[in-house]
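Input chain follows. Return structure tokens only.
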Amino acid sequence: MKKNFVQKIANWGNYPVVTKNIRTADTLSAIRSFVEQHNEVIARGNGRCYGDAALAENIFSTARLNKFINFDRINGIIECESGVLLADVLDLIIKQGYFLYVTPGTKFITVGGAIASDVHGKNHHSEGCFSDYLISFKLMIEDGSVHNCSESENAQLFWSTIGGMGLTGIILSAVFKLRNIETAYIRQESIKAENLDQIFSLFEESDSWTYNVAWIDCLQTGNRIGRSILMRGEHATRNEIDAKKRETPYVIKERLLPSVPGYLPSVLLNRFTVKLFNKLYYAQQRQKKTENIVDYERFFFPLDAVGNWNRIYGKKGFIQYQMVIPKEHGRQGMQEILSAIAESGNGSFLAVLKLFGKNNPFAYNSFPMEGYTLALDFKVNLQLPTLVAQLDTIVEKYGGRIYLTKDSMSKNSLTNYLRNVENPKFVSLQHKRILNSTITSQTTHGTNSKRNRQ
């Protein structure tokens, strides 16, 4: 980090790029001093959120809050500082026969980020969000004091911080539960679906599986719209893996991971290359259904297998658009969303469909609601704001909303759902953008109303 603390910075989507004040520390006195001396502060973990959520005028990096505090191996409970990566947690716990209850699609986020975003995974329909296994955390608030927060202690701070996008304070450490596993492998089934009707039926039929996720071809039209492959999985038992793997059931084969060396020309990503990729990806599975045993890295974190994969979108960066549409409107909503994307030609290599279960009503700032959620990557170009506005209109029509962890340009009426987080000390660029958009919208609406009355 530069000595003058001011530098260019962006989150994983490399959009937007801003020049802001960034500091880090690992002592309470230094963190408290930073909070006391600055306004518009936000905590930032590993920068794996996509848009402007972890950016602010003054950023506190939790990079040095990277220590484990306690590991109860008997009861499967771990305590660590907020800057510890889920990757580091997994490295520690898997060899002890434990796994995370909930993990997103990358292991390179921090524990603090997992709480602030209340991340979900492929098992939301069966096991909820990260917060469902969170016991407590320590939070520094605006006056520099530190509060232990749990369901029974400072409960309002506890629930407002979960999914609160860092707007209530700086999470310093956390205690959470782990799940038992017998091996580091997943028993996986992959099933091809020819269209939306088939993939929706497969999700319904797979409700008893712990993990469900589908890759979807976002450029298909007509009767093939929604062509996809459902991957469902369970933690494999010792009896389900072969004899060789049973010798070291918690150790998976190390592989040399490639990395994108620099930003690629954005012209390489276009309608034709995405369409070709989708065609090859769908065709690689020749049978309607396959069954196999894969290690947890391949099942949970396929994108982590390529270092700096975000650079394939070029220097202008990309956004990840993730929305949820209530279950009763899921079929129609996804039909319209995918039709709009195919018509626009803005294809996405990554297009992931999942089915959320019921939300936890106490975790009122969490993104998931019962329904279908779709996540797509789009490179930033001149046409993108028009497409996002078009998709937002469809999402709003069916009562859905946008995942704040990935938002950078969606309309405020889909992103202003946070409650009990207003605090002038902790303000992100994202929150300012949403608030300013809300004020502008209200002013415009008011002006129009007056004009209409005249």
